[in-house]
Write a structure and sequence with these properties.
With 389 residues, the protein is an alpha+beta fold. Helix content is 52%, strand content 10%. It has 16 helices and twelve strands.
């Protein structure tokens, strides 16, 4: 165990809103051991920005970690050459060039079709009506698992992210995670013969053209689904909510004064959809006066880093006019999110402009406020809205 001071949290309250506790930690103990989570948390942006690059100390390789046990050994849980080899293998599927030339048109088609089917029939939960199916349909295309229903893509993604954040060991959550990974394996098995015969630019299609072992192919598809569904889903719904509660900033975006990409980057700073990434201490190490022991678990708290008062003025405020370039919502080291370009295209290039162009007078329901939750993964649970026909 590290020599970090202990900091106790109320777990349900932390799930509801982690930011007050994280702000206290940044002020009182920016490196703190939280008994309720069984981990030492790094909460300052500078500590995380430096430490994430030190893979010889803060290792992603976690043989006993929940992700390895539940989803298989994917590239996110590998370091050095092992990580880079698999990252290079999938790059043709998600490179900026491929996103621009291949995926964006498909994203636009998915958005148009879903928006065409939407009707302002009373109160509409925008998470379920648009953010969820749009994210899932885009992810079906990118992964190559077009044989899935979008509902399964979302449910299986949620099952896995709940499973890998199940640090309290709830057996029901673990069982749902196993059901999700079994469903994904069956979908992969169904698509492999087709994609071997007719390769495409999907993740599965690209990986099948390499010498990557099949267990790694499966693990990396599950990785893509675990983060590739909830992050765009939550970012789309959350950014819509943020703009509707800040109409002056919405006007800046719809007028073109502020680019949609800047709006998205500020939301991802303010409410980081992926708020934490775990690491294993690979060798004895000391940061300032805190000593770490080999094999202990640490959490890099991206959600805290992105509200660090040393780098962001009034960090608890959503403000699309700010410079959010120091945000590390997508990571800061060699494990920088490989799907970042696809996510930006889905949210900033396609979803947000289409939503506010197509849905006239989109507005919140005054007596039904949106609900939000989570700390390792954070997003809206619902978003009741309506608009003019």
């Amino acid at each position: 165990m590290s020599t970090a001071p202990h900091f106790n949290i109320d777990v349900p309250a932390f799930w509801q809103d982690p930011y007050p506790a994280l702000a206290r930690m940044r002020k009182e103990a920016p490196i703190a051991f939280v008994p309720q989570l069984g981990s030492t948390l790094l909460c300052s942006r500078d500590d995380i920005f430096i430490s994430e690059k030190q893979i010889d100390v803060f290792s992603s390789h976690q043989p006993e970690g929940l992700m390895n046990k539940l989803m298989g050994h994917n590239m996110m849980r590998k370091d050095g050459d092992a990580h880079m080899n698999e990252r290079k293998a999938i790059f043709p599927a998600i490179s900026p060039k491929t996103v621009r030339s291949h995926w964006t048109a498909q994203f636009e088609a998915h958005a148009t079709r879903i928006l065409d089917e939407l009707k302002p029939d009373g109160v509409v939960d925008f998470v379920q009506a648009f953010a969820l199916p749009f994210s899932a349909e885009c992810l079906k295309s990118i992964t190559g698992l077009t044989n899935m229903r979008f509902q399964d893509m979302n449910a299986w993604s949620q099952g896995m992210i709940d499973g890998i954040a199940n640090y309290v060991g709830d057996p029901a959550i673990e069982a749902r995670c196993h059901a999700a990974t079994s469903g994904i394996d069956a979908a992969i098995d169904d698509m492999v013969p087709r994609l071997r015969k007719t390769p495409d630019l999907s993740l599965l299609g690209v990986m099948l053209q390499t010498d990557m072992p099949m267990e790694s192919v499966r693990a990396n598809i599950k990785l893509a689904i675990s983060g590739g569904q909830n992050e765009p889903r939550d970012a789309i719904a959350g950014t819509v909510w943020a703009l509707l509660t800040h109409p002056d900033q919405l006007a800046l975006a719809t007028s073109g004064t502020i680019p949609w990409l800047q709006v998205f980057e500020e939301y991802a700073r303010w409410i980081s959809p992926i708020g934490m990434s775990p690491r294993r201490i690979a060798k004895p190490w000391t940061i300032r006066d805190v000593a770490f022991e080999t094999n202990e678990r640490v959490f890099l708290m991206f959600g805290s880093a992105n509200r660090d008062e040393k780098h962001f003025d009034k960090p608890d405020a959503f403000d699309v006019r700010r410079d959010a370039s120091k945000s590390i919502a997508f990571g800061a080291g060699p494990h920088f999110c490989a799907g970042a370009w696809a996510s930006r295209a889905m949210v900033a290039d396609v979803a947000l402009p289409a939503i506010f162009k197509r849905l006239k007078n989109l507005r919140l329901i005054e007596h039904q406020p949106a609900r939000i939750g989570g700390w390792a993964f954070r997003g809206l649970l619902d978003l009741p809205v309506t608009w003019d026909a």
